[in-house]
Amino acid sequence: xxxxxxxxxxxxxxxxxxxxxxxxxxxxxxxxxxxxxxxxxxxxxxxxxxxxxxxxxxxxxxxxxxxxxxxxxxxxxxxxxxxxxxxxxxxxxxxxxxxxxxxxxxxxxxxxxxxxxxxxxxxxxxxxxxxxxxxxxxxxxxxxxxxxxxxxxxxxxxxxxxxxxxxxxxxxxxxxxxxxxxxxxxxxxxxxxxxxxxxx
Length: 200
Fold this sequence. Notes:
Blueprint: H1 2-28, H2 34-43, E1 60-70, E2 73-86, E3 92-100, E4 106-116, E5 121-128, E6 133-141, E7 146-155, E8 160-170, E9 173-182, E10 188-199
Antiparallel strand pairs: 1-2, 1-10, 2-3, 3-4, 4-5, 5-6, 6-7, 7-8, 8-9, 9-10
């Protein structure tokens, strides 16, 4: 009886494995399933839209450390990861997250879209995890690999009035600075970081 029970358990595990395998195959063949979408992106990299060539130096995943401060808060340090990617359209998708260096605890996150124009200008929309939303406009230099952004609008903010962001890429290293103005303080340094490219 014991031997028969072991055989039955092995048979049940085999049947469950076959059922799971069939489910995965069915999902992989369904264009709306997360598995299908993940597989499609993993095996297909769309051609870069010509409009993105001038800021293609930003594409990839960047990781490193930064530091922040402001007259109304204590200075702090953080780890950070930024990712820029595209889907073949004339817009770059953007995602950023930071964490405490000591504990790894999540701190800030934001995401958005960057749209360069042929005249050297660029439009950026950023949504922050704090509830703020930025509409930024600025310029880019493909030769110097620099992007300079100034806020046209900071929505849903009670204290922040304006934000100025600059990005500069040198080789496999990205440096950025963020200046901020509030209802009580003029525009001044708030964040700065140096990140290294970890994935193209």
